[in-house]
Design goal:
By secondary structure, the chain is an alpha/beta fold. The protein has one domain: Alpha/Beta hydrolase fold, catalytic domain (Rossmann fold, 3-Layer(aba) Sandwich), CATH 3.40.50. It is built from 11 helices and 8 strands. An 8-stranded mixed sheet has the order 1-2-4-3-5-6-7-8, sandwiched between helices. The chain is globular.
């Protein structure tokens, strides 16, 4: 897979489909490699006439790592944000949004439809805020605004999110953790079959295992705070997709996002949790394509 320099760092990306078609950028979430976008969804979007690009965010997968910057204490970052201060952290969520915009520039793409999941939803929100000229349409999936008054993650979902394999863990260590995370945050109506889940965990472990990057990304999320005021400035046509059974980012986060952006459309999907089940690929791809059209 190719790498390219964007925003001064190396970004790993993949491109699918005809470059002559409208470009569509997929931005993944916390600690997740580009491979967490199901290839079935990528193919469904290509079949609907898009040139689809997915990339590894900084500090994860095969993109540039920031191990030299150390791992910040995200609880301290949260406390400082609470009292109106900003901690010194390796990078901010706005930097990750600039990475995505710069990736498009590096690929010679003037504007693209952008789609983000979870933290990726936050990143594309900030693309629409800070780089509106790069964004044709924006789709935010299973994400939120950073509003602290919204319902919080269920305890078991938050525990699963933070219960990451330590540096030096083996594949045998990682597999049961991956199963616990999937069962804690996944879609209750569409549980992933065990063999499918195992294959996905093994694939991603062999591609890249770098758990400390997620700790820096969590700090960037916490540091960014409440985006509602910034989202009021967004004029990009926006679609918000959210599962009604999301235990990690409750559906109120999606509703708050749609409410903060003038004219945003909201699609709630029953039985969907904090993942992208293969059973929902056609519905999600159809919604994105319809919105982009």
């Amino acid at each position: 897979m190719p790498q390219i320099t964007a925003n001064g760092i190396q970004i790993e990306y993949e491109a699918h489909g005809d470059p002559a078609n409208p470009p569509l950028l997929l931005v993944m979430g916390l600690g997740a490699q580009l491979t967490l976008w199901p290839i079935e969804l990528v193919d469904a979007l290509v079949a609907r006439g898009f040139y689809v690009i997915r990339h590894d965010n900084r500090d994860i997968g095969l993109s540039e790592k920031f191990g030299h910057a150390g791992v910040p204490n995200f609880r301290r970052v949260a406390l400082m944000r609470l009292i109106g201060l900003r901690a010194r952290i390796p990078y901010r969520l706005t930097d990750m949004a600039t990475d995505a915009a710069a990736l498009l520039d590096a690929l010679g793409i003037a504007k693209a439809h952008v789609v983000g999941a979870s933290m990726g939803g936050m990143i594309v929100q900030l693309m629409a805020v800070n780089h509106p000229g790069k964004v044709l349409t924006m789709t935010s999936i299973m994400s939120t605004t950073g509003n602290r008054r919204l319902p919080q993650a269920r305890p078991e979902a938050m525990k699963a999110l933070l219960d990451r394999a330590p540096v030096g863990a083996t594949l045998e260590d990682v597999i049961p953790i991956g199963f616990r995370v999937s069962r804690a945050i996944g879609s209750p109506a569409y549980p992933a079959p065990e063999d499918q889940l195992r294959t996905r965990i093994e694939r991603d472990f062999k591609r890249s295992f770098y758990p400390e990057g997620a700790a820096r990304q969590i700090s960037a999320i916490v540091d960014d705070g409440d985006r509602r005021k910034r989202l009021k400035s967004v004029t990009t046509p926006t679609l918000v997709i959210h599962g009604t059974d999301d235990p990690l980012v409750p559906v109120e986060g999606g509703r708050d996002t749609a409410g903060a952006i003038a004219g945003a459309k909201l699609l709630e999907i029953d039985g969907m949790g904090h993942d992208l089940p293969l059973e929902l690929v056609d519905q999600i791809a159809g919604a994105i394509a319809g919105h982009a059209a």
